[in-house]
Input
Amino acid sequence: MTSHSYGQVAIIRTERGLTIAGTRITLYDIMDYVIEHYPPKFIRA
Output
């Protein structure tokens, strides 16, 4: 798997937990996908 950097992404602390700045996506959401072995292409979408 290749790592790509398209810009700087900030992680901010909100009442929902740690969130990707400018979105409602939490790190918990992403970790659920990673644990279930979803492909990176799906997670990025």
